[in-house]
Design brief:
mainly beta; 13 strands; disordered N terminus
Length: 172
């Protein structure tokens, strides 16, 4: 008699890289009772094209194309994501992500050994010692949008000139 499982279990982590080893856990491991969808892209698998998923997506293989995840995207040590855009709630990178624009409604974490090349917009960006980030970052979630510094330059120049003038007036 065969029994079907409600959802596939997450494969075991590689030795030395368990979620409990000082790294934050996403909460949906092999013993979890969560019904969150889980997508696993195995090492040796290459996906070319757009990837749309919900729940948690863990990439041990290669994804070449745009990625949109309504949930968490995890790029494992051997994982590679290349494309023009990545969108997810949270992103954890131990492998490599090369993208023009990564947008997260929550947190982006680049763990030791991980690499992110591209621009990031997220509410939080955490770069662990030994990780690499090349690009620009923008904090999301603020209700007030500030003008770019270039647009503020005349006001900044005026303020700097006023400060210098006050400093000179106060000199003996």
């Amino acid at each position: 008699m065969l029994r079907r499982r409600a959802r596939p279990e997450a494969p075991p982590e590689r030795p030395g890289r368990s979620e409990g080893a000082g790294r934050p856990s996403s909460g949906a491991g092999a013993g979890s009772t969560s019904s969150e969808p889980f997508t696993y892209i195995q090492r040796g698998t290459t996906i070319v094209g757009r990837l749309d998923a919900s729940g948690r997506v863990r990439v041990h293989g290669v994804v070449r194309g745009d990625v949109k995840v309504d949930g968490a995207l995890e790029v494992a040590e051997a994982g590679l994501v290349e494309g023009s855009s990545v969108e997810a709630a949270d992103v954890k990178i131990i492998g490599k992500v090369v993208v023009e624009r990564l947008v997260a409604s929550g947190k982006v974490e680049i763990w030791k050994g991980g690499e992110l090349i591209g621009d990031v917009k997220a509410t939080s960006l955490d770069i662990e010692e030994g990780a690499r980030f090349t690009g620009h970052s923008e904090m999301a979630g603020g209700s007030e949008r500030q003008e770019p510094l270039a647009a503020q330059a005349p006001d900044l120049e005026e303020a700097a000139a006023a400060l210098l003038q006050e400093a000179e007036v106060g000199r003996p």
